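Anyone else keep sequences and structure tokens together like this?

Example one:
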Amino acid sequence: MNREILRLALPNILTNLTIPLLGMVDMHLMGYQDSELFMGGVALGGIIFNFVYWGFAFLRMSLSGLVAQSYGKSNRSEMAMMLFRGLFLALCGSLILLLFQTGIERLSLSILEGSPAVKSLASTYFYIRIWAAPAAISLMVIYGWFLGMQNALYPMVISISVNVVNICCSFFCVKYLGMQVEGVALGSVIGQYFGLFLAIVLFLKKYRYILKEFSFAEVIKRSGLAEFLNVSGDIFVRTFCIIVVFTFFTSKSAGEGDLILAANSALLQFLFLFSYFLDGFAFAAEALVGKLAGQRNMVQLRLTVKRLMIWGVGFAVIFTAIYLLSGVQLLKVFTNQKDVIECATHYLPWLYILPLTGFASFIWDGVYIGATASALMRNTMLAASLLFFVLFYSLKGIMGNHALWLAMNGFMVGRGLLQSWYYSKLPVLRSS
């Protein structure tokens, strides 16, 4: 069982580690400019895309669990329709984003807090990166489908390639062409389209037979789309809660001034590094729990969950130790500005405990997605989000920026505890 977990988790860990690495490189490139405004501009522009792309993340998460269950049942037609319906929704969503990009940018920057200079840089970043939307959202669908097919290797190859190309292009544009926020945005666009091209090549290499199952009438069939969107709707609400929490976090950071925004943006990289690492095990949970649920093998399913939690505890302890020993040194990777480093150091203790408060929520997300227990996952996320806002508004007058980090830790703990409580109520377990 451990070997099976690691077979799926390790490629996903390598895949996910390239994502925060990309964020770190962008932060490094902007952190070594002559002002903290550039860090803030990319952070604020990035939060808009978190809102936009995380809004479509339900496509990946819905697919991985549903396809894994179809894989467990060996239903080839169902596997194919999941992919085609996902891509159809991805392309429709991308077209809407491109058509309404001006309205999205204006609305986002009117809601987010920040100085006019930072918002101007964020706007420049947005209008370049938005053209990556069709590729980025389609790749979410393809990643989820590959994972549901128990193939963690292809997403790893694609994601690493995307981020390597992105990093190289961003470095070239900023260091050699003299660009600033434009350079990191353009790097993202080039990287995403390269990844989509590679994904198509790999799909045709191994899964060409799936094309025989294509039927546009079946793709847009109301009953099929309704079933897909029923699970997707709950996951969308869950994802929207995360978007709101992180958008609020960045917006309130900006409201505290450009220095706090830069410091919190650097510290968030610690959270993203840990979360993308643990998501490797969450993705393994999606694939394994989905497959075992499709096979109705509840004994192995329960054993898998126990083993995944043990892995989660182990890596939470490791990350806490790393942050305790090397926190200040990691900050210097993101910026050489002494005032940003000094400011961020005051809030580092919250990052020391975050792996311990957050590990369970990541593992449980994978379990719930694999079991297609989307309603329960939605409800626990709503409750944890409410806890975040209650903690922040109760303590902001006393603790200032510390209240944001306390609320973030409370958000993570709340998710993990509630999902632990509802685990025995998962429909797939109760029906066994």
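And example two:
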Amino acid sequence: MDLFIARQPIFDATRDVVGYELLFRNGLTNCFSGTDGNEATRQVLLSTFVLFGLGKLTGGRPAFINFTREFLFNDLVRLFPPQSVVVELLEDILPDHEVIAACRWLKEAGYTLALDDVTSLERYTDLIELVDIVKVDFRATPIEKRREMAEQLRARSVRLLGEKVETHEEFREAVNQGFALFQGYFFAKPELVQARDVPGNRVQYLRLLRELRAQKLDLAAVESVIKQDISLSYRLLKFINSSFFGLRSEIRSVRHALALLGERDLRRWATLATLSAAAPDKPVELLEIGLTRARFCEALSTVIPASGRDVAEEMFLVGLFSVLDALLDVPLEQAVREAGVPARVKAALLGVPSPWRQLLELALAYERGQWDLVSDRLEELRVDPRTVAQVFVDSMDWARQACTAQLDPRRSGPPSQGAAAR
């Protein structure tokens, strides 16, 4: 049996990720759409716990998992520590005495409870006393109704979670209404797509990206740019001294670090570090998503005709640069032009039909749990479905490790004075 699991990040008001909702599909022909929610929940729990591992999927953050009425009485949830799971009560659950008793037991055992797809609080009077989170669908609930629910819950220790928050305007609106948690892809879209120019403080990073894409790498020019930027210098020295390399002695100079990396790893590291440095105000999750797409596309690049090292590297860039517009808050076409990306990478990013574009669309569809589109792209690319789920989970795990250990000082503290290039 083929198992597919995707995830959607859940943010707080500071745009830090606090958990993930897990999305599930069993095979390519039988999409669980509510007709067998018990089996869907069982497969999510078992595959999360046994096949993939919760750590790889959520990085230690809570997993939000849909529960049907019947599954509230199933002991399988006990496989997970209470702090690792948020029990989402589906909207069709009638809050009768049995359900209230089951929820009370889960609450007393330490589990967090959430009401899913709420459009009104009237039918949940008794459950409101037990739940911790109320999820409100922004697409299905009028703005006045959202305000009304926020006012009703203001005096209680219940957090409102806005689902399907797809724009920065909706995010700001939800914050103003009193929502504390947010689910949707607003963070992966540019805030100022109408801007005509790249912000001045990011121009140097785009120039470095262009330099890194040159056929013949000018090591002296790269070194010069990095040494003039304390953030890039810190990232380089942190990366080269990380456990990934296992060096016996500490590397203290930019020149020595660049020499040890080699050209291929230097291009890749400097590209990642530059993107991170260019967007210090963006959620770390955004870069992590770009890295997940990059690793996923690279791992599956062998399905592209004439595949090889160059194609794998190009597919890595396709996935990574798919978030370039959101990182820089400029239109994607302008961003890729300024960064000087290869022609096939640019075409794939801008939607020109090709195997490069199809592979990117597969990554995007899998990430969002758009299983019908995943099925179409797998068929077009002739990819074995049995390998895709593991590749995606491994890509998420790799991306998280890259952000944590190598690339982003926002996850490991600010650079010290001693981290400047010598």
